[in-house]
Design a protein that fits this description.
single chain, 432 residues, alpha/beta, Rossmann fold, six-stranded parallel sheet, five-stranded mixed barrel, 13 helices, 33% helix, globular, binds S-adenosyl-L-homocysteine, binds iron/sulfur cluster, binds FE3-S4 cluster
Length: 432
């Protein structure tokens, strides 16, 4: 059986697709890069914004004809969208040709449903068990991101930011036992992985009995060999000075912190239920800058939250200018049914469009300036991919570097590169 997986959403979903691929591979399936040739197409969906949902539904709809022509062809819909209230009913009505719909806690049932004879629109969603699914498929996961390997340290989220659907679809926060996480890291380093990225919606609130994130980060960073340890995402309400000290204390822990600010207005942050102020956020930025040499901070910023005024928006621009993010993922607020802010009045498409354009303009200028600051410097780069005549890698603090293939280097090698030119968010260099 040839299978193809289409993944939407965050890194956690990317990693979950690796687990799905592992489950299918164990059953004798073979990954097929060409969707047209696959016997089974799995959609691993995301519902964080309306655009993500529309894209998935559009792509599922596009397979209707093929399903009609070939009864043996299978379509499975998995991921966060399936966990939404009313999703299965909607699918039955609008996409009855879909064979299998599985919730995020039921991935392991995929082989059962594939073999089921009369599977027409089989639905298996376990909403009560939110967040606890853990295959612990350390060796079964079919990883495709070498030299990086993703490692979940927790599932779900307890924060209920007023705009966000994640706590509803992924359930309550559950931390994996530290022993499991550290064993998985050890296994991956022994396998030759050079970068480990710890995953959680709010990694700083990781806690297993009295074992917290600082301890996990310190022990993981201390795994003996030279490798890169990254983590995401940090919520500013829980990120603190102690974590900064741990980052500073280990050469293996990358000097890059992804710290989503969302907004620079205290009023909006309050309505978002983010539990920090712009001043606290800027204090953290300052603490990182003062304590960790060469550190870069990236962020997520949202515009057009309900009631956001011009003044609120200008405070966001102000925070962006003061923080000088190396990179910012910018989003237009999208109301999600069932969340608290969905009941609040929208600011309208036109205002959102104007604000996102202005935000991107301001951030692009900063991104470009930070890149220019790299010119003439020599930085260690981990080669992550290759295309044509070029290698692509990143610096410890997360900047993408491109250089010509040469000297027998390969993906997974650490190379010192002298930066010779910069282009918006990426750098070009010469290996030494
Ligand atoms: N747990 C992470 C975020 C995960 S979602 C954190 O708290 O930082 C990734 C990003 O999507 C969020 O940071 C936010 O900027 C954006 N996002 C979440 N819900 C959204 C919505 N309803 N509309 C627009 N953007 C949203
Ligand atoms: Fe969503 Fe907030 Fe949880 Fe992040 S911390 S996943 S934005 S509820
Ligand atoms: Fe991630 Fe989207 Fe789910 S951002 S956790 S895949 S809703």
């Amino acid at each position: 059986m040839l299978y193809h997986i289409v993944t939407y959403g965050c890194q956690m979903n990317v990693h979950e697709s690796e687990k799905i691929a592992g489950i299918l591979k164990k059953e004798g399936g073979e990954l097929c890069p060409d969707i047209e040739k696959a016997d089974l197409v799995v959609f691993n969906t995301c519902c964080i914004r309306d655009t993500a949902e529309k894209r998935a539904l559009g792509n599922i709809g596009a397979l209707k004809k093929r399903k009609r022509e070939n009864k043996d062809f299978m379509i499975a819909v998995l991921g966060c969208m399936t966990q939404q209230e009313g999703f299965a009913e909607m699918m039955r009505e609008k996409f009855p040709f879909v064979d299998i719909i599985l919730g995020t806690n039921n991935l392991h049932l995929l082989p059962y449903y594939i073999k089921l004879k009369d599977k027409k629109n089989s639905v298996d969603i376990d909403r009560a068990n939110g967040g606890t699914y853990d295959v612990n498929l350390t060796s079964d996961t079919f990883r495709t991101s070498f030299p990086n390997a993703w490692v979940n340290i927790m599932y779900g989220c307890d924060n209920f930011c007023s705009y966000c659907i994640v706590p509803y679809v992924r359930g309550r926060e559950v931390s994996r036992p530290p022993k499991d996480v550290l064993n998985e890291i050890k296994f991956l380093l022994d396998e030759g992985y050079k970068e480990i990225t710890l995953l959680g919606q709010n990694v700083n609130s990781y806690r297993y009995e009295d074992y917290d994130f600082k301890r996990l980060l310190a022990e993981a960073g201390n795994s003996g060999k030279k490798f890169r340890l990254r983590f995401m995402t940090s919520n500013p309400k829980d990120f603190d000075k102690d974590v900064i000290d741990v980052i500073k204390s280990s050469d293996n822990i990358c000097k890059h912190i992804h710290l989503p600010a969302q907004s620079g207005s205290d009023g909006i942050l309050r309505l978002m239920n983010r539990k920090y102020t712009a001043a606290r956020y800027l204090d953290l930025v300052l603490a990182v800058r003062e304590n960790i040499e060469d550190a870069l901070i990236s962020s997520d910023i949202m515009v057009g939250f309900p009631t956001e005024t011009e003044e609120d928006f200008s405070q966001t621009l102000d925070l962006v200018k003061k923080s000088r993010f190396s990179q910012a993922f910018t989003f237009v607020y999208s109301p999600r049914s069932g969340t608290v802010s969905a009941k609040m009045e929208d600011v309208g498409a036109e205002v959102k469009k104007r604000r996102i354009t202005e935000l991107i303009r301001v951030q692009n200028k900063i991104t470009k300036e930070i890149s220019e600051g790299f010119k003439g410097l020599t930085r260690e780069v981990l080669i992550e991919s290759a295309e044509g005549d070029n290698f692509f890698g990143r610096t410890d603090n997360g900047r993408v570097v491109t250089f010509e293939k040469s000297n027998g280097f390969k993906i997974g090698d650490f190379v010192n590169v002298k930066i010779t030119a910069s282009k918006s968010s990426s750098l070009t260099g010469t290996p030494l």
